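User: quick one, sequence for these C-alpha cells?
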C-alpha cells in the first residue's frame, strides 16, 4: 500500500496526516500520541474512527499538527483519520458518517466588530 494523505480542520487547528501500513503507531509532530495528548479522553477522540472500523493496529499514522488548542487539534486529527480511512476503503464511509466523524465542524470564533470590545459585547452605556 502506498502512503495515503488527508487533511482535517477544526476552529484554527489543521492536521495533515500520512497513513501507511504498519503496527498502529501514531506519531504527532515527531512525538508519540501519548506524549502529545497526555489526556486519555483526547487519545480516545483521536482513535475513535480507527476503533469504529476495527483497524487500530493495522496502520501507522504520521501527523503534522498545528494551530488552535488541544481539543480542536484532537478533533481535526479525528476528521483527517476518518477521511484517510475512506480513501483507503470507500465502503467504510457510511459507518463513519453515521458516527459523525466525516462532518467538518464549521464553528469558529466570530470576528471582533469595530466600536465594540469583543464580537458581541458592547462598551458600557452611560446616560450622563
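Assistant:
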Amino acid at each position: 500500500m502506498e502512503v495515503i494523505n488527508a487533511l482535517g480542520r477544526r476552529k484554527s487547528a489543521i492536521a495533515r496526516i500520512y497513513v501507511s501500513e504498519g503496527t498502529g503507531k501514531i506519531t504527532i509532530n515527531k512525538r508519540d500520541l501519548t506524549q502529545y495528548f497526555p489526556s486519555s479522553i483526547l487519545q480516545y477522540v483521536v482513535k475513535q474512527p480507527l476503533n469504529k472500523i476495527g483497524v487500530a493496529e493495522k496502520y501507522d499514522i504520521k501527523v503534522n499538527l498545528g494551530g488552535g488548542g488541544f481539543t480542536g487539534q484532537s478533533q481535526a486529527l479525528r476528521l483527517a483519520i476518518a477521511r484517510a480511512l475512506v480513501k483507503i476503503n470507500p465502503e467504510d464511509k457510511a459507518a463513519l458518517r453515521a458516527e459523525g466523524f466525516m462532518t467538518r465542524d464549521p464553528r469558529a470564533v466570530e470576528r471582533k466588530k469595530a466600536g465594540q470590545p469583543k464580537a458581541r459585547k458592547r462598551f458600557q452605556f452611560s446616560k450622563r
